[in-house]
Design goal:
The chain is of the alpha/beta class. It has one domain (2-214): Maf protein (Alpha-Beta Complex). Helix content is 32%, strand content 22%. Strands 1, 2, 3, 4, 5, 6 and 7 form a seven-stranded mixed sheet that branches. It starts with a strand and ends with a helix.
Length: 216
Amino acid sequence: MKLVFASNNAHKLEEVRAIMPAGIDVLSLREVGFEQEIEETGTTLEENSRIKAETVSQWLTANSQQSVDGVFADDTGLEIDALDGKPGVYTARWYLDEGERLKVKGEREIFAANRAKALRELKGQTDRGAQFKTVVTLIMKPTPTLPKGKELEQVSGIVRGRIDTAERGEGGFGYDPIFVPEGYDKTFAELPAETKNSISHRARAMEKLVDILSKI
């Protein structure tokens, strides 16, 4: 089975490929020639995940010469209890919230600016509970053997934890250096990749996706 993952994020792609079982080939947007920006106009993770999957699926139908079986897209949000679930759907560019004018260049600086904002917002807070939520939308190419109603599926995965008071660890990406998952005393950035990939929000959503794919 060949699926397109609606992302060019190298970190996400590495995680997803590590999680997917043998026999499922995962292609990035770059590998299928998709270069346009996807406008994430949704107000929920569910909406944005579906927008990305539908945009790429429609483009593949009209433009791509590659034969693929389907497309899947994820949208992930960090939801902090003391901040009423913020940043949520705005997780990736939270540093721009409230009109902040930070001059950042590149992925690494964006990640750092987002983490710094989280630590500032929680300064002095005793309630540091939080969760990561990933929503994955799958759109399969219609076939005569595909069960009715299985062309589009949406699943989610959540991992509870807390925001630490300082950054720890060199691994992972995004908010990993400040997020400590429940049951552990290390941040995602300190845990081995195989451990993170077995318990993370994305791993839990992907596990459900793999289960759906196994029945197609």
